[in-house]
Amino acid sequence: MKLFDIIQSASSNLWRNKGRTILTIVAIFIGAFTISLTSGVNAGVNDYIDKQINGVGGEDQLMISPSTQSMGMPNNEPQEYNPEGTSNSDGDYMTDKDMTTIRGMSNISKVEPFHFLATDYVQGPNDKRLVFSAASQSDIHIDLEAGRQVSANANDYEINLAPEFVKALGFSSAKDALNKKVTLAVSSQATGKQELIEATIVGVRNVSLVQQGQSITSKALSDKIVATNEEGLPDSMKNNYTMSFATMKKNLSDKQITALKDQLEDKGYGSMTVEDEIGMIRQVVNAITGVLTMFGAIALLAASFGIINTLYMSVQDRTREIGLMKAMGMSGFKVFLTFSIEALLIGFWGGLLGIGGAVTAGHFLNELAVSTFLDGLTGFTLIQFSVPSMVIIILVIMLIAFLAGTFPANRAARLDPINALRYE
C-alpha cells in the first residue's frame, strides 16, 4: 500500500463517523481561531508601535539632553556644584561643544541638534491663523497618510503637515493639501520683527501618539526659522539646543547600548531610546495577547483529548477491519501511519478553518475599529495577518494532533490480527 493510498484511505475513514469528527474539528477550530486572532492583534499593534518609534527617531537613535533631570529620569540626589561642569553644556541647554563631545564618543556615528522652532502662527487657504508646532528631524522615516518625506535639499522649504491641521487650514483631505502653500509667521526673539515664510506641504502625517500635533519641516525651512528666531541675539544665546538626536552604530547589543548610556551619564548627559519611552506599551500589549493565546492553547489541549477519543473509538469500530488488513500482510507501521494521518487531517482542517475564520473576523473587526474606537488613528490596522505566521500555526496544530493521535494509532498497530478478527 503506497503513501498516497494510505492518505486517501485515512481521509475516507475520517468521515465514517461525521458527527464525532466534526465535533473534534470544531474544538480545534476554536483554539486555532483564538490563537490566530490574538497573534494578528499582536502583530497589528506592534507594527503601529514600530511606526511610532520610526517617526520619532528609530531604533538606532538616542535622545540626549543636558542632564538626566530634563529627560524625565529619576535623579533625587542633590548635585554638588562644579564650576568646571561635567559636560560642555551650560544650564538646561546644549551647545555646539556638546555636539563635538558626543560625536567623539564610541558607537556614535552621527549627532544632530534638536531645534526648537518658534513660530507665531501658520496660515492656509481659509486665512485662519493657527498656533503651530514643528520640528526638524533628519534621517527619520515619517509615517505618512499621503505624499512624501520632506526633502534634504538645502533650498526647499517643505512641510510634512500634522493631520490635525488639514481641515483646520481649509483643506478637504490629506491629498487635497499636497503641494499647497502655507505661510508661517516667525519672529525674532530679540527684536520682535516678524517675517512671513512660505512653505509647501509635500506630505501629511498619520496620527502620532508620541508627536501629536507636530509637523516636520525640511532642514532648509528649519534653518530659516532658527535664523529668524535668533536674529539680533548675542552670540552666547545662539545655537543653544534643548536636546539632540544621536545615531548609534548599527546592530549594537543591549549591553553596548547600556554602556553608551552610562558613558553619557558620566559626562553629564541624560539619554534614552525611543523604545525606552514607548516600550512599556509594547510590553502591555504582548502580555495581554499572551494571556489570550494561552486560552487558545487550552482549547487546543482540550481538542487533543477529543482527537484521542475520536481515534480510539475509530480503532474500536474498525478492529476486525484492522485485523483483516494485518492478516493480508499490512505492516504495523502502515496501520500506525494510517491513524496518524487521520489525526494530522483533523488538525489540518481544524487549523485551516480556524485561521480562515480569524482572517474573516479580522477583516470585519478592522472595519469596525476604524469607524469606532480607532477613529482618527490613521495608519493603524488593528489586526494583521502574515502567511508565515499562519503556516506556523497550522504546523503547530498538526504536530499537537499527531502527538495526540499516536496513542490510539499505536494501539491499532499492536493489535493481534487473530484476536482482532474474533472481535465482535
TrEMBL record:
Its main location: membrane. It is a multi-pass membrane protein. Residues 294-417 form the ABC3 transporter permease C-terminal domain. Keywords: Cell membrane, Membrane, Transmembrane, Transmembrane helix. It is found in: Cell membrane. Residues 21-215 form the MacB-like periplasmic core domain. The chain crosses the membrane at residues 21-41, 291-315, 336-365, 385-405. It comes from the Bacteria. Residues 65-90 have a biased composition (Polar residues). Residues 65-91 are annotated as: Disordered. Belongs to the ABC-4 integral membrane protein family. This is Permease. It comes from Candidatus Enterococcus ferrettii.
